[in-house]
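Hey,

Quick one before I head out. I ran the complex with threonylcarbamoyladenylate overnight. Inputs first:
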Amino acid sequence: MPATALLDRPDDIAEAARLLRQGELVAFPTETVYGLGGDATNGRAVAAIFAAKGRPRFNPLISHLAAAGAAGDFAELDTRARYLAERFWPGPLTLVLRRRRDCAIALLASAGLDTVALRVPAHPVAQALLAAAGRPIAAPSANRSGRVSPTTAAHVRDELGDRIAAILDGGACRVGIESTVLDLSGERAVLLRPGSIAIETLAEAIGPIIPASAIDAATPQGPGMLASHYAPALPLRLDAAAALPGEIILAFGDAAIGKEIIWLSRSGNLEEAAANLFAALRDADRPGLAGIAVMPIPDAGLGAAINDRLRRAAAPRG
Ligand code: TXA
Ligand code: MG
């Protein structure tokens, strides 16, 4: 892989946008922290983000937009969401909203959920990049898994320098703490992550907001659930060599045996399998079948996150 380019001239925005459109990863500054960006509409690019971060599991990512007006292309906005978007975007607020049926953001960026996290960052370099890319950019904080979020281009280079195509240098981040994440996908507004906009400020605008810890304790449908994502209705059988009668098989590698086959990756490519995983689980979950068999997936790199997700989907449900 060629050395990571450090881009710090105004013309470099066009180059960074070109790389993103080609499916490459580019770190870029926002007013909160640096993000590790990839084309949110390209499942392979989103998979590459998880691989670069070394995340042991797929958690959903924030998709960044150039302007608030684009949010309605991807998600359903109710009155509360419209009001907050108008008031706080561009800015350090992330809204979790229901995905539109025709949402072009890869299901992997939603970790298989019916919701999508959107944010319009205020940093001028992020704004210019997003406008030039002309599509939503998925970006978690640009650190390796388990490390603190980076607030300078040098931090990003230390963390991920050998794993991404380019770093767009926009100086030190002004805010330095991540965006506030507010879930408006249900009737009650839920604070999923405290951040640089205070919960009181948001509550003044839309009324009561519940901390995620409160619903976790009160109901089994709390953030534990939010984190547990989509589980198919059919039973899942892992490490299957072949489909049993009535089963559909999710195949990895070219040796699949079964009447009905959905390919995670025919060539045995983990990035491709990750990109296809959540759509495949949904597609396989058909009435009239006995179950879903899944071929073995190597447990290295992205395979560990794929297997984590599959194990949780296969776990007995109460
Ligand atoms: O300031 C920030 O938010 C930075 C900059 C780069 O925008 N991004 C960031 O991303 O901190 P990340 O991936 O490190 O954190 C995203 C948070 C996670 O806590 C994730 O679980 C939550 O947002 N999240 C994203 N999509 C979600 C969804 N559909 N449902 C629930 N939580 C979601
Ligand atoms: Mg983070």
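The longest strand covers residues 93-99.

Talk tomorrow,
K.
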